[in-house]
Fold each of these.
Amino acid sequence: MSGTLVLVRHGQSDWNLKNLFTGWRDPDLTELGVEEAKTGGKALADTGIKFDIAFTSALTRAQRTCQFVLDAVGQSDLETIRNQALNERDYGDLSGLNKDDARAKWGEEQVHIWRRSYDIAPPGGESLRDTGARVWPYYLTDILPRVLSGQKVLVAAHGNSLRALVMVLDRLTREEILKLNLATGVPMVYTLNADSSVASKVVLGDMSGAH
């Protein structure tokens, strides 16, 4: 029995627009972010999909994106589980800082390492591996069993929490995942085999705007 897993990164947030490290801070969506979420929802609605359950993080930008998607597919009242296991990577001392200011303080190379290495965390924060260490168990215990039972599951979350999932689903290496950027508001539709491997993947939109 094959199920469907849909991953959507939240629409542009106010801090994305201002070029700030966001992490676990909780800015809202911009007007563009709202439109991105609605556009992603419409793309899903056009496929005729109906979900059995939705998962999102403890942060507003992901929760609102999730709701806009559910509104678009005509399932505004669908059961939605919120859990901080799906939160964005915690940027620690970088949170709230402008990325250019961070480069001025710590140097271009050091900030690049924090942003783009797999297992080196910024001060007080998480690496991508650390993020995966909380995302992967939650996926295995709470999300995957529903998909394998044949359900259609929506996950609206964040760039790095979703990269951790995509790394597993697409069987990417550490080097490959570091090059992957996910566009805001663009749904990725996975069909899984009974052994949890990917039978098919369809991206409903343009990934060229990924950042």
Note: The radius of gyration is 16 Å.
Amino acid sequence: MNSKEKHIAIKAENITKVFGDFTAVDHISFEVEKGEIFGFLGANGAGKTTAMRMFCGLSVPTSGTATVAGFDVYKETEKIKKNIGYMSQKFSLYGNLTVAENLNFFGGVYGIPRKELKAKCNELLQKLNLEDEKNKLVGELPLGWKQKLAFSVAVFHNPQIVFLDEPTGGVDPVTRRQFWKLIYEASERGITVFVTTHYMDEAEYCDRVSIMVDGKIAALDTPSNLKKQFSSQTMDEVFYELARGAKPSE
């Protein structure tokens, strides 16, 4: 393994997922570096969620090879799960438990020692300004607070990689900006962020983006380079060009 390989968080080579006669993910290849914020974009049905499930160890690829946090997606799925965090648009918290109970529960699931857990919980509540709401049911919190809490829980155990599936869906622009501040802080701590979003302006916040069209990666580069390649002012325009079949220029 060379020095560059040691800094690769996710590596996929010709990963494919077939359901009967339908190819959901079609020979995709890419690498994500440690600490990178990697945007995985595409319209509904483009194959984003199917691909993410394979990288999280929840679905076995039909063919191709991939490693996540250095572990094989075929043979080491349990090791992958122990080294990642995950958050979906539905925020993955228990609405019938209080904020404090959720933190204690997930802290236990992630194996955080009891001596550390209390201090980590207090630190997180203070950071999110949720100290006065710690005994409130999560189901009673505003959506934006739920999303920020869910993300914080997903990185509570300091995983190597966190997978975020449409994490800011349905929240207001101010809350979205606050959420992305949390993402940047996680990245600065060395956590790799793999995020899907349908908000093209959020693609601008990523170090690099991959755009899926019909199960294939149609383009992969930094947002600024993609805009240059398509002579576009925004990522919305880039996405439109790719959707209509345009190819990136050199």
Note: Residues 16 and 105 are 36 Å apart (CA to CA).
Amino acid sequence: MRTPWTWALLFSMAVLAGCGSSSKKELPPADLPDFTAELKLRKEWSRSIGDGQGDLFNRLVPAVDGERIFAADADGLVQAMDRLTGKVLWKKKLKLPVSGGVGAGFGLVLVGTLKGEVIALDADSGEQRWQAKATSEVLAAPATNGDVVVVQTQDDRLIGLDATTGMQRWIYESSPAVLTLRGTGAPLLTNQLAIAGLSTGKVIAVDARRGLPVWEQRIAVPQGRSELERIVDIDGGLLVSGSTLYVVSYQGRLAALDLNSGRVLWQREASSSVGVAQGFGSVYLSQANGTVEGIDERSTTALWSNDQLARRQLSAPEVFSSYVALGDYEGYLHLISQVDGRFVARTRVDSDGLRARPIAVGGWLYVYGDGGKLMALTIE
């Protein structure tokens, strides 16, 4: 098995390959563009979550469930807070390093570890409910619908666990690609389906109760002479709006699928390992090269494209009010207009970087920095 350090190296190599430069010296990240701010972000509260993302290119994303927000750091600290005040409700220090999280819902807080463990905590107290063994590293948040917990592992297996006991109910096996980015997207779970994007560029849907295949759809076809050029991982997670599933692959395509059948509604060339956002009839995409795009859902044409954040290692976008929020490697949070892609605000959250997707809930934006700073922001 490849070690996490190897996977981190492979990710760096893949990002460089994805820049498309034929010169020996890669271009540096773009300087921050100047603009006139149109609004101001207000910090409502800020908390430190231990060591944050750690050194292994984790992408730990907090989870909001009701009026609580849950966050974890790479060393195993899990923390629950009131999402409006930031008051700490409980802390739990696990004995294992956390690499996948956080999942929350139905009274559970769920994380995965580098050693292939899935840990369920009680959402009210932080006490451990159960611990289960997966087949390899868990690099994304487990998901639950109250009946089953579904976890995706680094080796492209999808595992269904009983939500009450943690006992394995089923396992869906799939052969991973020869070379992949370090990471997986978090599985998406409905009452009937468990859906996941794979390192081979496919999306699969299985019956959530029994793990039997329902549909499979290829989003990207590996192309190129080298294994680096043939990386087509779906690592950015999946997004559902109504009955439409949005998915993007690295060095592949952005696609809209019918949630129930997997039928392709539309697709266009794209490359991203962080995922998409959707709102106001548009899909928003952080490309691997740092270009941010707004794409019309009906015509599939680009409404606007902003390339001023080139090579700044952007996070996944998030729709926040009338804007698109995303972070970069220097820890700046950018707000871009959904209408035309212009910059409207910027603030620095964590000098170690912003790798995790921001989370927007009810007019509040939660941003978790690589160094462990969790900040709640609103628009003044």
Note: Helices lie at 4-18.
Amino acid sequence: MSLTSVACCQLALAVGDPDGNRAVARRAVERAAAAGARVVILPELTNSGYVFRDRAEAAGLAEPLDGPTVEGWIASARRHGLILVGGLCERDEDGLIRNSAVLVDAGGVRAVYRKTHLWDLEKTVFTPGDELPPVVDTAVGRIGLLVCYDLKFPEWVRTVGLRGADLLCVPTNWPLSPRPAGERPAEVTRVQASASVNRMFVAACDRAGPERGVAWVGGSVVADPDGFLLAGPRPAYDEGLVIAECRLGDARSKRVGAHNDVHADRRPELYRSILEPARSADPAEV
């Protein structure tokens, strides 16, 4: 399989300015396409911004899948011949407000994922998803979707790896938090770990700039199946492109050395205990 250029567009967006956000994203996609990108990723909640005053504000910014944001992404995908993944404040077919990731190509919407693990006040705004994250066959390889906080749950990331994803795309909005001097953001380390333990490429697209007093990590990165960074984070954690050449076919092999395979070596019969309530100890056995 040949090299595929994967780009994360790290953007400064504004809550409550969907027209401006769509314009910022469109220009970033154009820059990524001009740089040769075949897969382009935009941040979480690209259309709406993130720091909502309340649920009503989010609901007023939410769009259906056939709204102007996704329609614009499809037009960009057709114009530039690429695959685009973006975060959407979505109003679904039942009127529920979702924190979603949408994958489009020249043919239209290929996959939608509704964020399952909601972070902090997101629980007061969004309805969580209840379906497995999609893994989609595309022109460049198999692509899976998650959103931000989902990466904290290794069993959820594993569901993507076990279904054969070559590349996991993760729109994110990582709020900036203190870290020791010289340390890499923990969010970036989590991307590397997810890539390594599943032997797949992982591209996470973060935000930059402040929004209503909240600053962002600016930790957009692309990691390879060994967990090493191919690109990012940007030196100043600022707005701009993070782009890497990925041989996505390398993710098809789960072998580590001559004697190990991270899928074949699994012992799922021993893992059931983490999915079942712990059995109370029998007093006679203590």
Note: The two ends are 57 Å apart (CA to CA).
